[in-house]
Design brief:
Largest sheet: none
Number of helices: 5
Order of helices and strands: HHHHH
Shape: globular
Oligomer: single chain
Structural class: mainly alpha
């Protein structure tokens, strides 16, 4: 129980911007792996576009919702990373989505 309380106290000291950035980076990393963009020799075996779509869409929702709260200075790099993932998804997809229908584009607009 004390360990759980210590963890709660620790997170209580973390600024919201750090929590938001950490979550966004985890989503970006997971999406990159699912797009086969990792450095490992088996990166191609990790490709799962359905999973990547979900992660990118959630990331887009988070970045879009967080931007007014965290300011452009912090949101811009997140938007750039998101856009790179969206473009990589389009490039890796054998059946491209219509403009505006790709992962997260309902939040960000078309990335074509």
């Amino acid at each position: 129980m004390d360990s759980a309380l210590n963890e709660i106290r620790d997170i209580s000291e973390v600024p919201a911007i750090e929590v938001i950035n950490t979550v966004a980076v985890h989503l970006m990393s997971a999406a990159a792996v699912k797009l086969g963009l990792s450095d490992g020799p088996d990166a191609a075996t990790d490709i799962d576009l359905d999973e990547a779509r979900k992660l990118i869409t959630v990331l887009a929702g988070l970045v879009t919702a967080a931007a007014p709260e965290i300011g452009d200075q912090h949101a811009r790099p997140l938007r750039d990373g998101l856009r790179s993932l969206q473009l990589a998804f389009r490039e890796g997809s054998t059946l491209p989505d219509a403009p505006g229908a790709g992962p997260g584009e309902k939040y960000t607009g078309s990335v074509v």
